[in-house]
Amino acid sequence: MKYFLQRLGFYVFTAWAAITLNFFIPRLIPGDPVQALITKYQGQLSSQAIESLYVLFGLDENGSLWSDYVDYWKQLFGGDLGLSFAFFPTPVSEVLGDSILWTLMLVGVTTILSFAIGTGLGVLAGWRRGSWTDGLLPVTTFLSSVPYFWLGIIAIYLFTGPDSFFPSGGGAEVGLVPAWDVYFIPSAIQHSLLPALTILVSSVSGWILSMRNMMVTVASEDYITVAHAKGLPERRVALSYAARNALLPNVSGFALSLGFIVGGTFLVEIVFSYPGIGFQLFQALGANDYPLMQGIFLIITISVLVANLLADIAYLLLDPRTRKEG
User: Fold this and answer.
1) Cα–chain center distance at 287
2) Would you give the DSSP letter of residue 108?
3) Which spans in the chain are helix H?
4) Cα–chain-centroid distance for residue 282?
5) 9, 29, 119, 162: which has the fewest Cβ within 10 Å?
6) Mean pLDDT by 10 residues, the chain (326 residues)
7) Spatial distance between the Cα atoms of 154 and 230, rounded to a whole number of angstroms
């Protein structure tokens, strides 16, 4: 319990520091969102309208940086993330609500699938080392070192075109309204296949390598030799003894990867123009949209911290040695 409270206190402090940086960093970026709107409307805004925009966005000279910081914390505790500059007058929470489901469905499903497939293949490759499975290791090593977005660019070049089944970008067919119906769902699945395969091919290789290496290490332990000496079935020794202990580092890695679901594949969404959190951040940067950037960074920060806390809890539950004092 003491260990858990210490870790919880550490994460609370980290959250405060991250949220503070989240407030200051966007304001250090050169540029002015009001000027971006003026450019967007090609000088059609009057001087009074421009002055009103500065006041509305909280960019006027009347308030100090400290008062803005205090107001920012008050808004967070009230559940108010402000108004988006790029999608004015839509609230940031509404913009994030529309886009986060796209990211969760795409990256969340691919993360779980890549972990399950990669761990299973890693157990097989590590337990039967020296067999044909080791011939796949150079390929998996190469794929795990290739960034998601680079694979995405190659996939667009190879598999998209006028007569291709795979669309080159977007989240669904143009003109379809997002809804759980027989028109939108198939279109959304079709548009997500190529970015999902891109993420899956790259990430599954890393799970195979890590699990294979842990299986090789665990297979040389004394308790594995004792299990063989008892005459236990090979399948039981591999799964119940070797894989169960080799899985511990992968479980922590999986918990951390869940935290990066929201922000781990920004460039993939940008490459495929996929309407998720990453693509929204790209638009927010172009428009100097402080509230939207802060909202996205806040979600990423909280996701990573919660995932780290869950990883610590999972390790406490799975490995009894971590629960012993001293």
Assistant:
1) 23
2) I
3) 2-28, 33-40, 47-56, 65-77, 92-103, 109-127, 137-145, 148-159, 184-219, 222-229, 234-236, 244-259, 266-271, 277-286, 290-318
4) 15
5) 162
6) 72 84 73 65 68 66 70 79 76 83 81 85 80 74 76 84 80 75 81 84 81 83 83 82 78 70 69 82 78 83 79 69 54
7) 52
CA separation, residue 203 to residues 144, 208, 209, 275 (Å)? 6, 9, 10, 21
Interior angle at CA 34, CA 28 and CA 35, nearest 5: 90
CB 284 within 8 A of CB 246: no
Any residues with CB less than 8 A from the CB of 223 and at least 6 apart, and which?
A: 241
Backbone torsions φ then ψ of 137, nearest 5 degrees: -60, -40
Which residue has tokens 């469905």? Answer: 105
Do residues 323 and 316 lie in contact, with contact meaning Cβ atoms separated by under 8 Å?
yes
Q: What SS3 class is residue 323?
A: helix
Bridge partners of 160, per DSSP, are 166
Contact 96, 87 (CB under 8 A): no
96-216+242-283 CATH, one of 3.30.450.40, 1.10.3720.10, 1.20.1440.230, 3.90.1150.10: 1.10.3720.10
For CA atoms 254, 257, 258, 261, the dihedral sign is negative
Alpha-carbon span 131 to 142, nearest angstrom = 20
d(CA 133, CA 121): 9
Q: What is the pLDDT of residue 85?
A: 75
Name the residue ranges covered by the structural domains of the chain: 96-216+242-283
Distance CA 279, CA 220 (A): 47
pLDDT of residue 326: 44
Within 13 Å and on the Cβ side, how many CA atoms surround 293? 20
C-alpha atoms less than 13 angstroms from C-alpha of 118 in its C-beta half-sphere: 31
3-state DSSP assignment of residue 166: strand
